[in-house]
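Justification of resources, computational component.

The compute hours requested in this renewal are based largely on the per-chain cost of generating structure records like the one below. Each record pairs the submitted sequence with a full structure-token output. That output is archived, and it is also reused by downstream analysis tasks.
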Amino acid sequence: MDNIEISVQRDVFKLAQVFTISRGSRTQADVLTVTVRQAGHVGRGECVPYARYGETMESVEAQIKSLPASFDRVSLSGLLPAGAARNAVDCALWDLAAKQAGKPVWQLAGLPTAPGPEITAYTLSLDTPEKMQAQAAEHSYRPLLKTKLGGGDEDISRIKGVRLGAPDTKIIVDANEGWTPELYAKLAPVLVELGVAMVEQPFPAGADDALLELERILPVCADESCHDSASLAGLKGKYDMVNIKLDKTGGLTEALALKQAAIAQGFQVMVGCMVGSSLAMAPALLVAQGVEVVDLDGPLLLGEDRNNPLQFDAHGVHPADRKLWG
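The structure output for this chain reads:
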């Protein structure tokens, strides 16, 4: 088999507006785009290095450039750890394989049916209760809103504002590791009363044993605590749902395996994303088929996107045009 030529470049996409979570704010999405070439065929993938996991643009780029001239999807898992670098390369290899075979990735991956559109959450940026109410009202036509929270008593006012702004919309919340057990006990009954369906990662990943003792009246989803299939053993009894992100799993290959394993072990599944372009969402949408919660709104938060971007409408986010990926 011919060697694989691999290249990586940095791309920047301006956001439609400032996006804030409990860890800080941003005005642009910084991504790495991987291109693989073999025997005249080209595949692409995208990743978002994440400081929370010790990643930088420089470190992830160096990982990608460290790969040998000859490798494939099977050997890749032994060459790079789960994370952003392996994600971009793995997804690029799937795209390459689809181009070489003249078949879509979903067929190559052995999925039973062609992917269809999935309703996705739309994320509201962390802000004052009044501004979050205004955000919710602007997007109240959407069937699912995800609200970033910051920790503290003001989270109650934020959620009350969001509910006032979007009285008929399903709401989930993301605490980004910002709560304590005491705060969960205080907030959970209020959020349940306001119709909130779930909270993502209320406690720091290294301090989530408290979930074993709590009565989880508000279902809890593991995000920072769940990376790949090996994570599941430590989540039993703590979490009701796991959030699968390709930048954590190290690509589509492991994401599909994690989904299967999580369902087999009784977890509900959410498929989420970092703030990236349509190229990053396209493979994740294959994993998102039929799961309980889809959060692939990255392109909706951008002021600019790739050519041949994903399409969003009342039916949700639609599978990618094969000119984009897959």
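The chain has a mean pLDDT of 95. The first helix runs from residue 57 to 65.
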